[in-house]
Amino acid sequence: MREAEFVTSEAIRSAVECEPTLAVLIPAYRPTATLADLVKTLRSVDWQMIVVVDDGSGAECESIFREVAGLPRVEVVRHAVNLGKGAALKSGINLALCRFPDLSGVVTVDADGQHDPEDVRRVAASFRAQPQSLVLGVRDFGGDIPLRSKLGNRITRQVLHAAVGQKVVDSQTGLRAVPRELLPGLLRVSASGYEFELEMLIAAKHMGLRVVEQPIRTIYQPGNPSSHFRPIRDSMRIYFLLLRFAGIGLLSAVLDNLVFCGLFRATGSILRAQVGARLASILFNYPAVRRAVFYSGERHRVVLPKYLLVVVANATLSYFGVRILTQGFSMGVLRAKLAAEAVLFFFSFLVQRDLVFAKRAASRPQT
């Protein structure tokens, strides 16, 4: 999936000369005076517009935003209070889509000085070469990087890979080019903080969009004072988002086993208990994983048959697993059921993630 290669300066100039269909979006919370310098530098490229979102920065930053708002083709959106980076990104996306409905995408840039304007142009050029991809500006975490950033990215990267099968070098990068196809759905995402950027990766995965990684410079000020990322609080929100995948599966398993226990005690039949438990589980699990986990926008007639096929296969394997464990290993029925389901849980999750609810990335012409 990773396609990490630098875009040449020649490609950048070629892309810039094309009809511009991108807007730049900069969420800002208590920025320094360098924000105005960043916006002025980015204006040298003919974007449709530059949107700066003041996420409740307060009166002390008023002069900075006033200066930015006075620049041509720059819009400043104001939040009365700090709502979070995700909320700021959604406000900017909404404005960009309302002003330019045919926009090809937006390029998000952090306001803390960690993104070199030349790298912003590189990411934009990479996107213009493949405009139906999510392009991430990825940093190199092998050098002199603050420990909290290095560890946070490494842990999140591994958890994201396990949860959604997505290998991304820099899962928390704020420099990314987001295709038009992804933008409307992002406005409906409930996340309002840093976890919004992970939601974006998850949504892209399940919409079948390619993720392209464009290497960028790694810029950190000593101590990283301009970052408003709170390591403990914001990391917990990110990991809680990822644990949602396992959480719904666990709740489904609990419901399935409770119904199985009740029906088995009432009927004494493993088969009847298995069928009844699986039907009860489906009523909860299908709508939950379709909307809250896998973000599937596919019609029921496309997704439901595949989902039910997986359920039938899972239930069949579980039934024979229980039979084998009870008859061949003298294990109790309930213990055998739990053992079989524990193994099949991961199988079921992987199949649903990659085959049932994920769109296939459409083949696109090479440029």
What are the defining features of this structure?
single chain; 367 residues; alpha/beta; Spore Coat Polysaccharide Biosynthesis Protein SpsA, Chain A; 2 domains; seven-stranded mixed beta sheet; 12 helices; disordered N terminus
Explain what this protein looks like in three dimensions:
The structure is a single chain. The protein has 367 residues and is of the alpha/beta class. It has two domains: 9-229, Alpha-Beta Complex (Spore Coat Polysaccharide Biosynthesis Protein SpsA, Chain A); 244-356, no CATH class. Helices cover 55% and strands 11% of the residues. It has twelve helices and seven strands. A seven-stranded mixed β-sheet has the order 3-2-1-4-6-5-7, with helices on both faces. Helix 6 (147-164) packs parallel to helix 9 (231-267), helix 8 (195-206) packs across helix 9 and helix 11 runs antiparallel to helix 12. The protein is elongated, with a radius of gyration of 24 Å. The model is unreliable at 1-7, 12-18 and 362-367 (pLDDT under 50).
**For the largest beta sheet, what order do the strands appear in spatially?**
3-2-1-4-6-5-7
Indicate the percent of residues in helices. 55-70%
Work out the number of β strands: 7
Which parts are unreliable, with pLDDT below 50 for 5 consecutive residues or more?
A: 1-7, 12-18, 362-367
In this structure, how is the largest beta sheet organized? 7 strands, mixed
Instruction: Work out the strand percent.
Output: 5-15%
CATH superfamily placement of the largest domain: Spore Coat Polysaccharide Biosynthesis Protein SpsA, Chain A
Secondary-structure element sequence? HEHEHEHEHEHEHHEHHHH
Calculate Rg over CA atoms: 24 Å
CATH topology name of the largest domain, in short, is: Spore Coat Polysaccharide Biosynthesis Protein SpsA, Chain A
Determine the mean pLDDT.
82
**What structural class do helix, strand and pairing data support?**
alpha/beta
